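Can anyone check this?
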Amino acid sequence: MTPIGERIRLLRIERRLSVNEFANKSGVSKSYISNIERGVQKNPSLIIMGKLAKTLEVSLEELLTYKYANDNLKNSK
């Protein structure tokens, strides 16, 4: 699982949304969300990320910053 996929999954679970509910609210397909969460889709577009962030009630910056913060932590070890 990629850091961004992990973050999205954790936020979705915190908000008690199933993948199906999340897909319906965000307008992003269940399979695409699942692929992001599992790390199959490693580079979703900013448009998709914006829809997911809005549905999760976080800023796009928060999702993207989390990814780069984790990458930097891994690189510093």
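Reply from J.R.: I decoded it. The longest helix spans residues 60-76.
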